[in-house]
User: Which sequence fits this backbone?
């Protein structure tokens, strides 16, 4: 086995090897060497030579591949992390970032639809699937009698194998009898509701807030406890305006972006005076 064979094998084991021969970074180029190293690695990511979720080679191998010191490699990696292109995993090295997911403004999409619209592989691991009795709050929100049967489904949601969110829903079985028999590790809930029960989720009342991850969510999402989450509490209505789902989605705060279109009330647009009319209340961003 030659020296180059050894390097290739070690690189493949340790992480993603560099596909293209890097330029000479130690010469008299423009800018600090660590920035040139970061720019080169960033180009590899943007070109797809290094893909989402892929582990990079260890610092020692990157140092050899780029022809720079390990200190320079370390500074380059932290620069890339600052750009949002890579992220560390405690004890496991550096990974190409999955990027931030976000729904188009004011569009109600299932997680499956959203991921596929970005060309990503959508995955799920079922954490809980059980029939529970509706308590007073759930019954009121879903317009069913207290004690009615609900499907409680909780899943870990993944994109290209990367943990993105923990998604829990409650659906009244009076509207979707037998819903518990479907395998939601593979299927989209919205698609099953549409195809099997002619229930089309059409509108949602949603509250969004920042919350700290508890120990359980942190373990599932591969983060530390207290890491910021973006939490969605949602009641979904169907095409007839009837409640069909209650859900809570806890997104990793570094992997989801919420977008909204906010419209100024007509009374304020038409007001010719400066400022807000007396007694007006600010809009609630829900």
Assistant:
């Amino acid at each position: 086995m030659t020296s180059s064979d050894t390097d290739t094998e070690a690189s493949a084991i340790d992480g993603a090897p560099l596909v293209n021969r890097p330029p000479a970074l130690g010469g008299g180029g423009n800018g600090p060497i660590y920035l040139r190293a970061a720019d080169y690695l960033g180009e590899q990511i943007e070109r797809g030579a290094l893909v989402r979720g892929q582990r990079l080679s260890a610092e020692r191998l990157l140092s050899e591949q780029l022809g720079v010191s390990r200190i320079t490699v370390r500074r380059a990696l932290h620069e890339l992390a600052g750009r949002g292109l890579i992220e560390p995993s405690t004890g496991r090295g550096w990974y190409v970032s999955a990027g931030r997911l976000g729904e188009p403004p004011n569009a109600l999409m299932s997680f499956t639809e959203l991921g596929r619209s970005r060309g990503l592989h959508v995955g799920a691991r079922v954490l809980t699937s059980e029939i529970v009795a509706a308590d007073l709050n759930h019954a009121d929100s879903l317009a069913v009698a207290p004690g009615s049967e609900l499907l409680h489904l909780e899943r870990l949601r993944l994109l290209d194998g990367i943990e993105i969110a923990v998604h829990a829903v409650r659906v009244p079985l009076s509207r979707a009898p037998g819903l518990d028999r479907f395998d939601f590790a593979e299927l989209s809930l919205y698609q099953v509701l549409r195809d099997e029960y002619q229930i089309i989720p059409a509108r949602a009342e949603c509250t969004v807030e920042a919350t700290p991850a508890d120990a359980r969510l942190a373990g599932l999402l591969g983060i530390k406890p207290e890491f910021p989450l973006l939490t969605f509490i949602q009641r979904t209505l169907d095409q007839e305006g009837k409640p069909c789902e209650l859900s809570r989605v806890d997104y990793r705060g570094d992997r989801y972006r919420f977008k909204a279109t906010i419209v100024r009330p007509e009374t304020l647009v038409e007001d010719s005076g400066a400022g807000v009319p007396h007694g007006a209340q600010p809009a609630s961003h829900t």
In short: The radius of gyration is 24 Å. DSSP finds nine helices and eight strands in the chain.
